[in-house]
Specification:
The complex is a heterodimer of chains A (about 260) and B (about 300). Helices cover about 35% and strands about 25% of the residues of chain A. Chain A has about 260 residues and is an alpha/beta fold. Classes of the chains: A alpha/beta (about 260), B mainly alpha (about 300). Bound molecules: adenosine-5'-triphosphate and magnesium ion.
Chain lengths: ~260, ~300
């Protein structure tokens, strides 16, 4: 058996477990996200959504189970029936293909918007400066921030910062984008502009895993909704169906609160 | 919209400020009077001797040791700090031990020890350890497997010994300063860099350290000033091309030590003033992207143009 399966799903996780000391945060997460699909993850606070996303790009080491991204096992190599940890360098290479957008933006404050977007392609991939500059400019224009290229993050609104963060992740030409509550830190009137940028991305066929409480977004562009609680997937399926007819009691009460 | 009437109010008076100014003026006048009239200052003698070639060479030595010790101290300190925050337990342990040792030993003792290392090892050589003992096991007496050997005294001149010991000691303090700086940076920053595929080294170099600089530079300024003053301990190595030694030597020679101590004060004041200017510009450079007073003013200007508030 080889590690690569290019026709399979973009994300496949099997029985993912993760504990912090005694606290078991993930207790067997199975999930499949096909190429081009948008998967929306819902769940109450502390249910392990962020932890799960961080496991997907190996920011956290999992204790049991398997995570396959684009047909490759994340963080490990299998030989026979033995698993070998991958070297840090190889894990970093795997992460290049996975973009991540954070709740608190995490832009680099000492760099301008353009420099933020250019940094990783320049330093990590070693691409030529002229190419990267052109692409970064185009990405900023795409998220509607062509005129903010020379602004520092603290001169931008939250919504603008988050759009720069999306452009920064896209600059690495990822195959998969992870969003961890990208609009929760924003003032209500700024949520729309970030969601619009994400919807554009979804329509262009980007595979996305999005943790969010924006039910409207889930209904509009979601292909799959996963409801997590207590470290397990309680319910999953087509977002419109699950939102309209939740089967589980916990899903029902959660949706009642956020709708 | 009509222009509102400008405010014309009587400003608050601060009478006590004027009292304080008057008081300080009197004190200053008394002090200056004392400086001018007390003949034991021997001003003319002092000015004649505080710029002699020997003193200027001493000044050069002082500055050179300060600069070199700080450069190596900062470089090594950054490495020790990175090791201290590394996931590798061996590196963490080594860096802890380093900091423990060099913070515990007073600089003056360290200088004396490094100045006299040639007592411990008259010759330094690089080769296979325990070579003569291994030779004996195999029945060969006098087996020497050395690549090269040099006389310690010629390699470790007083100047180099002094610089190395000050640099090693400085690295321990700088490591703690750099560590505090790195820990002051939001962990989300390293995480974002890692998620973009950067290695730990890249994330530290490009993202964490530049932001840590804002916290690192002010105490580093203090360290540089302290280093400048600690070069006066170099006599314990002994190194004599150093400012304070040269000045006090003149004082002893002419039996007028006090004026030369005053000269030392003036010299150190002058050099530190130059250092402070450098620190000001460094701090300004690394405040980039942070809401400094200047940025706020610029921002409110922009917001004003766009008709909004900051
Ligand atoms: N590094 C860590 N060390 C210890 N406990 C952690 C760590 N990270 C997360 N946890 C714990 O794991 C649990 C799940 O956290 P997680 O952040 O994944 O939840 P979440 O579903 O994203 O919640 P929220 O909606 O509030 O963001 C929480 O109880 C949290 O305290
Ligand atoms: Mg979370």
């Amino acid at each position: 058996m080889t590690d690569v399966d290019p026709t399979g799903p973009m994300v496949r996780t099997v029985g993912v477990h993760k504990s912090f000391g005694r606290l078991e945060v993930l207790r067997g997460i199975d999930m499949v996200v096909e190429r081009g699909q948008v998967c929306v993850v819902l769940g109450p606070s502390g249910s392990g959504k962020s932890t799960f996303l961080r496991c997907l790009n190996h920011l956290e080491k999992i204790d049991a189970g398997e995570i396959w991204i684009d047909g490759r096992l994340v963080g490990y190599r299998r030989k026979g029936d033995k698993l070998y940890e991958l070297h840090d360098k190889v894990i970093a290479e795997q992460r290049r293909d996975i973009g991540m957008v954070f709740q608190r933006f995490n832009l680099f404050p000492h760099m301008t918007a353009l420099q933020n977007v250019m940094e990783a392609p320049l330093r990590v991939k070693g691409e030529s400066k002229a190419d990267v500059r052109e692409r970064a400019g185009a990405l900023l224009a795409r998220v509607g921030l062509a005129d903010k290229a020379t602004s520092y993050p603290n001169q931008l609104s939250g919504g603008q910062q988050q759009r720069v963060a999306i452009a920064r992740a896209l600059a690495m030409r990822p195959k998969l984008m992870l969003f961890d509550e990208p609009t929760s830190a924003l003032d209500p009137e700024l949520v729309g502009e970030v969601l619009d940028a994400m919807k554009d991305l979804a329509r262009e066929g980007m595979t996305m895993v999005v943790v969010t409480h924006e039910i409207g977004f889930a209904r509009e562009v979601g292909d799959l909704l996963v409801f997590m609680d207590g470290g397990v997937v309680v319910e999953s399926g087509n977002p419109r169906e699950v939102i309209a007819n939740p089967k589980h009691e916990r899903t029902k009460s959660f949706l009642a609160k956020v709708l | 919209m009509s222009q509102p009437e400008p405010i014309r109010a009587v400003p608050v008076r601060h009478p006590w400020r004027w009292v304080a100014v008057g008081f300080l003026a009197v004190l200053t006048a008394m002090f200056v009077h004392m400086l001018v009239t007390n003949e034991n200052f021997h001003w003319r003698f002092m000015f004649r001797h505080m710029f002699t070639p020997a003193v200027l060479r001493g000044l050069q030595g002082t500055i050179l040791v300060t600069v070199l010790a700080m450069i190596f101290g900062i470089g090594l300190g950054v490495l020790v700090a990175i090791a201290r925050l590394s996931p590798n337990p061996v590196l963490r342990g080594v860096s802890w031990a380093y900091t423990w040792f060099f913070r515990a030993v007073p600089r003056i003792v360290l200088l004396a020890v490094f100045g006299n290392l040639n007592i411990l090892w008259p010759n330094l050589s690089l080769g296979v350890p325990f070579d003569t003992y291994i030779g004996k096991i195999f029945g060969v007496t006098d087996l020497h497997m050395r690549l090269f050997t040099v006389e310690t005294r010629s390699l470790l001149t007083g100047f180099i010994a002094g610089t190395i010991s000050l640099a090693l000691s400085e690295a321990a303090y700088m490591a703690e300063i750099v560590r505090a700086g790195m820990q002051s940076v939001d962990p989300g920053q390293e995480e974002a860099a890692t998620a973009l595929g950067m290695s730990r080294g890249q994330a530290l170099r490009r993202v964490v350290l530049p932001q840590a600089m804002r916290v690192i530079i002010p105490p580093t300024g203090n360290e540089t000033i302290a280093m400048l003053k600690d070069t006066s301990l170099l006599i314990y190595v002994p190194v004599t091309t150093e400012l304070f030694y040269q000045l006090s030597a003149i004082g002893s020679r002419f039996f007028l030590p006090f004026p030369m101590y005053v000269a030392a004060c003036l010299w150190y004041l002058a050099i530190v003033s130059v250092l402070l200017v450098g620190q000001y510009y460094l701090e300004r450079h690394f405040a980039r992207g942070h809401r400094t007073e200047q940025a706020r003013i610029r921002l409110s200007g922009i917001a004003g143009e766009q008709g909004g508030a900051v």
